[in-house]
Amino acid sequence: MTQASLDARAKAEIEFFGSFFEGWDRTLSHRFYFLPNLRRLLVAINPTPDTNLIDLGCGVGYLLTEASARITEGVLAGIDITPAVIEAARADPKLRRADLRVCDIRAGLPWPDNSFDVATATSTFHHWGDTETLKEVWRILRPGGKFYIVDWCVPKLLTPLLDWIMIRWSGCWINGGYCSKKELHQLVESVGFKVTHSGLMPPMLLTVGEKQ
User: Quick check: 72 and 96 in contact, CB under 8 A?
Assistant: First the structure.
């Protein structure tokens, strides 16, 4: 993808999510599948008080807010490309100690190597997941650290249909880019992760890659 294409995509994402997030917590989608899945994800992660966790595409910080009750000593961090959602996250009293930054992962992550035990991407990986961004996730994780991806995955023949449905539903061209389970595993393992878990987190798929 050219730099011009990346810039156009980033601009579209900022505009879309800058308006989309307001009122999201009152929707049925948030209440009945998004928030329950975040809580299931935390059960799967099972963080300790000193776990260092970063959420990639954190939005207003729903996962980090849930995690703050468990991670009381470790680092809580989150990035999002949209300034408005990071501003909203910073206003949450439960996230006062969280390191929240406006950042496009495609331009690199502003943390040193081996900074985190856990990285998460919940319904965001299809926006930015490729070899180069995965190398960045691998870099900031400690050896043995895990990357938890929760996203839609369908058989390869159906990915164009899923792209079409999601783009039509959202009314924005950026909401495509899905891949099959096999493609996701190959992509994750191509940069040095080992897939240690892959299973349904209805209606999405949870994939866990461990840094080798």
Answer: no
Q: How far is residue 198 from each of residues 24, 29, 181, 188, measured CA to CA in Å?
A: 28, 23, 9, 12
Cα separation, 51 vs 70, whole angstroms: 9
Q: C-alpha distances in angstroms, 188 versus 24, 51, 64, 117, 136? A: 30, 22, 23, 17, 12
Residue 76: phi and psi, rounded to 5, are: -110, 125
pLDDT interval class at 135 (50, 70, 90)? very high
Q: CA 210, CA 212: separation in Å to the nearest integer?
A: 6
Range(s) of the domain holding residue 132: 3-211
- The domain tally of the chain equals 1
pLDDT digits (tens, 9 = 90+) for 160-171: 777 677 666 655
pTM of the model as a whole:
0.87
- According to DSSP, residue 33 is labeled I
